[in-house]
Specification:
By secondary structure, this protein is of the alpha/beta class. Helix content is 28%, strand content 14%. It binds pyridoxal-5'-phosphate (PLP).
Length: 399
């Protein structure tokens, strides 16, 4: 038997609010808004832990955390191009879904979905077709099929437990999965994607953290969108992982009205690094159904990162990522500082926006700042290099 303190996360989960009527006790909400919520709730899941509610300013209808957890009537508006499965977890044409619990898009990494349940339901979820869906078909035998696929596919060097939230599993279930993965020799690293440190940080018990140390090298990727989500409680529980040598990264989403400003993003990355968490990916919003009210201009993320460069430590800057709809993969967007002029000379843009020719020879005269009017961004990668990489990926990690 574990002591009560350790199991606080289960109580927290049980007490989570799933019925909009019960919200009245916790936040100021008028009847019209409540009725809207009931309508949305018929289509999408809702679940808010008492802990998460405690981080919200009850009297501020624009509280950023409230926006991320409280259903909004705009979720019932479906726009052109919005999809059930926006990032193509299942795309038959790409053959990226060999068995029910696996999505295998890249040669070297595979996603394993051990549960459809989460500690809370994000209003902008890209997997809302399955997250928390009680009709999601899940059989015990699926897990065995997944292990068999991972065992026979040599090119896979990393398995990523995603979801749903893998930390919704009980310790024993989770450790059983990790133990099995540990027996597969071509798997070099295991990664876990989780939002439990945000919805319900009590999940990171000492038992869990200690048990996980058996599965090094282990990488954990959290999902924190706003500095207010990194409460002292959250920091304390995440530290249990970091203190034990587990690498913790954070990926998050650019969300209109929540974090779409340089100020909030700057505060977020600074809070992350002072909590020893490495900012990893800033995602552009996926085209899931009914989430367009969170959408920003795609250029906005590039500009935010450009502003961060030079005003925060370099390691605090994430990659800005688009997951191309339908499963074509993730691509980073960033401002290009590398350009060429009409004669093919390399021209570099400075953080202040001046252009400087980059000298070909070390003894060339000091650079002069110029106002180049027609420089073009350049990208360097030879066909030969591309071929070589393709070969390495196709043949797995055989040397
Ligand atoms: C996002 C994703 C990954 C992980 O990508 P990283 O760039 O390694 O974080 C792997 N497989 C699929 C299908 C994904 O969508």
């Amino acid at each position: 038997m574990k002591n009560e303190q350790e199991e606080r996360w289960i109580i927290e989960d049980r007490n989570a609010i799933r019925n909009p009527q019960k919200l009245k006790k916790h936040i100021n909400i008028d009847d019209r808004r409540l009725n809207d919520l009931m309508e949305v709730r018929k289509v999408f899941q809702m679940k808010i832990t008492p802990y998460y509610l405690s981080l919200i300013d009850k009297d501020d209808p624009n509280d950023p955390l409230l926006k991320m957890c409280l259903p909004h009537k705009d979720e019932l508006i479906v726009r052109d191009g919005e999809l059930n499965d926006p990032i193509g977890d299942i795309n038959d044409e790409l053959k990226n879904h060999p068995t029910p619990l696996i999505t295998h898009r890249y040669p070297d990494r595979a996603l394993l979905f051990p549960t459809p349940f989460c500690g809370g339901y994000c209003r902008y979820c890209f997997r809302r077709r399955l997250a928390g869906n009680p009709d999601y078909k899940y059989k015990k035998s699926f897990l065995e099929d997944a292990f068999k696929y991972l065992e026979k596919t040599n090119s896979i060097i990393e398995v990523i437990l995603s979801g749903g939230d893998p930390f919704m599993l009980r310790d024993e279930e989770l450790f059983n999965i990790l133990e099995r993965l540990k027996t597969i020799s071509h798997i070099r690293t295991i990664r876990i994607h989780t939002k439990m440190p945000v919805w319900n940080p009590y999940r990171i018990t000492d038992d869990l953290a200690e048990g996980l140390t058996k599965f090094h090298p282990l990488w954990i990727v959290t999902h924190i969108n706003h500095p207010n989500e990194l409460s002292d409680t959250a920091k304390k529980h995440i530290s249990r992982l970091i203190d034990r040598g587990i690498m913790v990264l954070n990926q998050w989403v650019l969300l209109k009205g929540v974090n779409d400003s340089v100020e909030v993003q700057r505060e977020l990355v600074l809070t992350l690094i002072s909590s020893r968490i490495k900012p990893y990916y800033l995602h552009y919003l996926d085209k899931a159904k009914g989430i367009s009210h969170f959408k920003t201009d795609i250029i906005k993320g590039i500009n935010i990162l450009k502003e961060l460069r030079g005003t925060v430590p370099g390691y605090a800057i994430p990659h800005y990522i688009l997951d191309i709809p339908s499963g074509y993969g993730k691509v980073p967007f960033q401002f290009h500082y590398l350009n060429e002029d009409e004669n093919g000379n390399i021209i570099v843009e400075t953080p202040e926006g001046n252009y400087i020719p980059y000298p070909k020879n070390i003894d060339e005269k000091a650079v002069e700042l110029k106002d180049y009017s027609n420089v073009n961004p350049i990208v360097l990668f030879s066909e030969e290099e591309k071929e070589h990489l393709k070969e390495v990926l196709e043949n797995g990690n055989t040397k």
